[in-house]
Amino acid sequence: MNNVLDMIVSTAEAIPVALAPGNFLFGLLGLVFGVIWGALPALSSTMAMALLVGFSAGLDINAAIIFLLGAYSGSVFGGSISAVCLNIPGKPNSACTAMEGYPLFKRGEGGAALGTAIFSSSMGNIFGAVMLVIFTPFVLSIAISVGAWELFLLGMMGVLVSGSISSAPPLKGWLSGLIGLAISMVGIDAISGQPRYTAGISDLYGGINFVAVLIGLFGFAEIARGLLFEKDHPSGMLNRVSVNWRELKKNIGNFFNSSVIGTIIGIVPAAGADIAAFVSYTVSRRLAKPEDKALYGKGSYRGIIAAETSDNASIGGDLLPSLILAIPGSTVAAAFMGALNLQGIVVGPTIQMSHPGLIETVFASLLIVSSLLGFVGFLLAKPLVRLLSVPRRVLLPCIMPVCVMGAFAAQNSVFDIYVMTISGLAGMALVAGGFPLAPVCLGLILGPIVDINFRRALVIYKDQPITDMLFRPVGLILIASILLIMIGALIGQRRKEALGIAD
Fold first, then answer.
1. CA–CA gap between residue 105 and residue 69 (Å, rounded)
2. Is residue 56 included in any domain, yes or no?
3. Is the pLDDT of residue 28 over 90?
4. Which of 9-18, 27-36, 61-70, 319-328 has the lowest mean pLDDT?
5. Is 369 inside a domain boundary?
6. Across the strands, what pairs with 196?
7. Longest CA pairwise span in the chain (Å)
8. Averaged confidence pLDDT in the chain
9. Which residues are bridge partners to 187 per DSSP?
């Protein structure tokens, strides 16, 4: 309990750092960018973070943290604007909001639906940040006893989980993760100092820049999909944006349930806002009274509150395994980890000792941007509805130069532009072959953790029986978890095939 109180006090002391004029401004800029980006269909939160990681490298660490957290929070919410007003979920996590918000929009209640979504998103974000502060000391106390072998297993579990819960068959998901691991091993070996898989190309000695790969995988693929396969939709008029306080008062219990669900799902590696929104929406529907249940699909504020609260609460949960266990809760969190790596910060169980005060700064920054989200959302709602009327065939090509600049800015390297281009083409080929891209990203980020800790474990136990390494209690639990994940995923796939459900 004392550790929790200490963390709360330390986070409160870090709030003035986040509120420093320069940092506050960057947080606000990140939010504005994130909300605008999130509202534009076919542009993902991962793509936003991938573009901004390179730009953040030139910022002070505190400014970079609040800037990226602002973009993260804003992009998760932003999809709700196009969901309510156009029936186009800007992001997958906004699909439930579209199902309930657009019918309200057609009834002339679009402003109230969107205002309620904005308020729910902001409060869900704050709830997730508070839970992050409370639970971090418990996770740190456990994680600090984890050794190299356990870190290797945690890294592998993160890759396998991401491959298991994607829409593709598990084997394709796992193969995508292994591709990411293989890419991460290009460059100078951190232990032996010898070049690996560089083919004599000097630009590869420093490794393949994950920012360029990330932009290529998600930028090219999403822009191409938006241009080739998605149609433009006309926008309508939006009345005054306001909060439906009566519905919020009725849904206090629903808000709390959805916040808890979102935070817990956010902690699960590779789950994230999409799953959180759908699970909370489903739970809220099942728990609804008959008269409220009848409104689902026809315009339910209850459904909007559940989805928007949960997907934003997942952000706090998402950051917990990313910072403390070095296992990204999602591809967006993986990009955030990468941004910290560019600043010379290695996340993991020792982060509190190697960088004291850093995680408190992260928590304080998340609380600040969560509180600002409502203000920015209300400010940008109507202008963004007008922006959404711009044809996608005009809008999306304008983003390509941003991708190029983002890839170049990470290391000021023209070579990284080539890496981005090749990664984009490879990403399009993977998508065409039914391979998910998220596991590639997680494999790329977790690769150094998996590689280095596996080899460290072999060095530590080289003069001991192999059973001393394999039968460590925490390691056995992780091995059992990995086997259960793999077996469960394979059984689930068999059931889908037996039922004739297509992926």
1. 30
2. yes
3. yes
4. 319-328
5. yes
6. 187
7. 74
8. 80
9. 196
Q: How far is CA 24 from CA 48, 52, 377, 381, in A?
A: 20, 17, 17, 21
pLDDT tens track for 223-268:
766 666 655 555 555 567 778 888 888 888 888 989 888 888 777 6
What stretches of 235-300 show up as alpha helix (H) in DSSP?
245-250, 252-267, 272-287, 290-293
Please give the structure tokens belonging to residue 473.
């209690």
**What's the rounded mean pLDDT across residues 100-105?**
85
Among 238, 336, 280, 286, CA closest to 34: 336
Running DSSP on this structure, what letter comes out for residue 188?
Answer: E
pLDDT tens-place string over residues 428-446: 888 888 888 778 877 887 7
234-243, 276-285, 342-351: segment of lowest average pLDDT: 234-243
CA distance 353 to 144: 10
Q: Is residue 503 part of a domain?
A: no
383 to each of 35, 71, 296, 365, how far by Cα in Å?
12, 18, 29, 26
Residue ranges of alpha helices (H) inside 357-503 are 358-387, 392-395, 400-409, 415-432, 438-460, 466-470, 473-499
For residue range 374-384, what is the model confidence (pLDDT) as tens digits? 888 888 887 88
- The residue among 75, 407, 392, 427 whose CA lies nearest residue 220 is 427
pLDDT at 24: 92
Angle at which helix 331-342 crosses helix 45-56, to 10 degrees, equals: 0
The count of structural domains within the chain is 1
In a domain, 427, yes or no: yes
Dihedral sign computed on CA atoms, order 41, 46, 51, 53: positive
Taking the C-alpha atoms of residue 175 and residue 497, their distance in angstroms, rounded to an integer, is 20
CA distance 224 to 239: 33
Q: How far is it, in rounded angstroms, from Cα 137 to Cα 95?
A: 35
Range of 328's domain?
Answer: 2-498
Sign (positive or negative) of CA dihedral 351, 355, 359, 362: negative
Sign of CA dihedral 175, 443, 45, 276: positive
Structure tokens, 489? 């995923």
**Rounded-to-integer distance, Cα 187 and Cα 308, Å:** 42
